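User: I'm new to structure prediction. If I give you an amino acid sequence, what do you actually give back? Let's try with this one:
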Amino acid sequence: MTRTAQPNRPPRTAGTVESTRTAENARTTESTRTTESTRTAEPAGEARPAGPPARRAPGRRPGGSPLLRAASVTAVLVALGSLLGFTRDLLLARLFGATHRTDAFLLAWTVPETAAPLLIEGAMAFLLVPLFSRAVERSEDIRRVVSATLPHVLTALVAVTAATFLGAPLLVEALAPGFADPHLAVRCTRITSVAVLLFGLAGYLSAALRAHRVFGPPAAIYVAYNAGIIACIAAFHDRLGVTGAALGVALGGLLMVAVQTPAFLRHVGPPRGPSAAALVSLGAFAPIAAFTLLRQGQVYVERFLASSLPAGSISHLNYAQKIAQVPMVLSLIVVTVSFPALVRSITAGDLPAARRRITGDLGLSGTIVLAASAFLVAFSPEIVALLLEQGEFTAADTEATAQIMRVYSLGLLGQTVVGAVSRVFFCSGRPPWYPAAAMAAGLAATAALAVLAVAAAPARGTAGIAAANAAGITLTAAALLLGLRNAEPALPVRAVAAALGRPVLAAAAAGAAGLLLRPLLGGLPAPAALALGATAVALVFTVVAVLTGSKEITRMIGSMPGTRRT
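Assistant: Good question. You get back a string of structure tokens that encode the predicted 3D arrangement of the chain. For your 566 residues, that looks like this:
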């Protein structure tokens, strides 16, 4: 998972004078400490230097190196957080297996699972990153923005946290009406309810830091979060069982805030006076929150229907989804890093640059997730067995989880497209309702198809639920891509199809090659078989992508050490 250089961007012409003037003001203090050529925190293509243009060697893409460095730091920390997440899931599987106890914890896990996309990477980021980025672009004092927003955000977070704690029994009954041990689920849900407050505060700090082009601490939050959960599981599993894991969610949320606070105070500073103009309106937040909650609704549908299936079904779905979504999360690092730059391009009126950024990010993130999807489809049983099949997690659990993971993988491109494209709609001060409507259509399709699948074949109900998930999110992705024709900046579907079509063909060829190779590797140890399988899949994907003319794979190769132009 590496961030490659962004698509070529022609020199700025008309409209650049004003954006240069505002950027000059915003960087007056910074320029006394560092030169433009060594500033590493500025995302690519958005450095509009004061004074003479920065000198670049011929052929080098403007600003690519800072964005690559920011994405690389983010990738390393996200990968470490994912590794700790695997360790967390491995401990859960090994100590508790796939039983009613883990199902109870995973019902409680719905709280942080909802809070994370809503308050960290979803609605909070979509709303506040543009707000803070516009303040930076206009040379406003961002501490006044903090003063005007943070008290209101905290008040809302405390109220929702209290409501979640008090309403835990109703929440569990609504999510899983047929669940066998609701009391354990309620207890765990009440403990994890504090995640609403802590995740919200962590998301607020992340948005402010990203707008300041500081990406390290926000990327480290899941390292801290998973470390807290692992510590509590290890310390309390004998005495408290899965309740110890719920305590870990609370501790992990606290650590997410702690790991960002020093950087926030250093780069943003304490609040400074009120500023009514910077207040966040309900009208701006509502469509973003609706979109995020509807997207998370797929998890609610899964757990609602799986609660009536055999014990362990919720756990199998969870483990499969957690593994399958890792490449999607990693592929969206490029979008996360470039989001503040996209907002500044649109704010400055540089729509051609914004279009190039959107197309390039879509093509790159899609290429990454499609290559990983081919590998997951081909080698799911070996991956699950290597990661999870220990202790209470049996071979039957591996078979069930691997089957689900293969189906989930078919929807990963849709997940990535939804994550990337939705940001485009939320860059303006008044976000539209179109993304929420597209997500509602996808959720309705997921629910209808999942109900039909469970009713038609209960024995294969979990795989049917996963297939419904993949179909629903793919429908949403298609609707959002169509909506880009009328967005600002508008993006023709033809441009997106050109960026994603070739990687899709390469993924199909690579997945087929992996499935043909897999039986030949059956006698090898799992690590060796996976290493050879990954190599073969990557090689076939790369060759087919190059032969079909994929620009994204060419850029990825060109950004590797020793091949990049300087």
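You can read the tokens as a compact description of the fold. Here is one thing that stands out. The two ends are 22 Å apart (CA to CA).
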